[in-house]
Each structure stands twice: as C-alpha cells, then as structure tokens.
Amino acid sequence: MKKTTYLDKNEMELAKSLGNEEWISDLTKKEKKQYEEYARYSLNKQKRINIRMTERDLKKIQVKAIEEGIPYQSLISMLIHKYNEGKILISQKTA
Asked: pLDDT by residue (tens digit) across 21-68?
C-alpha cells in the first residue's frame, strides 16, 4: 500500500530539482561523514519496551519462533516492523 502525497507547486519544483541533483552540498567531507554517522545511528537505535499479553499468546509466539529458528523477541519485533511498513494489515470484520 503506497501512501499518496500532495505537494504544492513550490514543493514539486523543489522535489524535481532534488531528483535532478541540482543541489550542491557545502559540507566538508568530514562534516558529511559525521552527519551520515548521526543518521545511521538514529535509524538503528533500538529501545526496550514492556508489553502485557496472555500467557497463551506468548507460548504460541515462542512456538512459532522456534519453528522459524529465531528468538521470540526478534519475531515480535519483525511483526511490528512489518505492520509499520504496511506489509501486514489488520482486517476489521463488521458484524
């Protein structure tokens, strides 16, 4: 599922110029490398969370994780990531 974005005329011109690589950075190589490192770090940063779930659900997840050959925490994290990326959808049934 692709998100639709709406751009005004100025934003479209800016996006086009960025796509055509018309912009030139004034950063030194050292500064550029530092900012790339900051971006890489912020994208890979992980946080711990606590969630409550039924013991039955946890056991089922642990069994699925064993079948996949990965830790159950990794399976939960992967499922959350896929949901955030729109690769898993939750269907809502109407009564």
From this structure: 888 888 899 988 888 888 887 777 788 899 999 999 999 999 999 999
Considering only CA atoms, give the Rg of the chain. Answer: 21
- Read off the tokens for 41: 């770090």
- Whether the Cβ atoms of residue 65 and residue 71 lie closer than 8 Å to each other: yes
Q: Which two tokens stand for residue 81?
A: 């990531």
Q: How far is CA 45 from CA 31, 42, 71, 74, 84, in A?
A: 21, 5, 19, 15, 16
Locus of tokens 């996006």: 15
Rounded to whole angstroms, the Cα distance separating 80 from 10 reads 36
Q: Which residue in this structure is represented by tokens 């490398």?
A: 33
Q: Please report, for residues 15, 23, 36, the alpha-carbon distance to residue 32 in angstroms, rounded to integers and kept in the order given.
A: 21, 15, 6
List of domains in the chain: 7-45 (no CATH), 48-88 (1.10.1220)
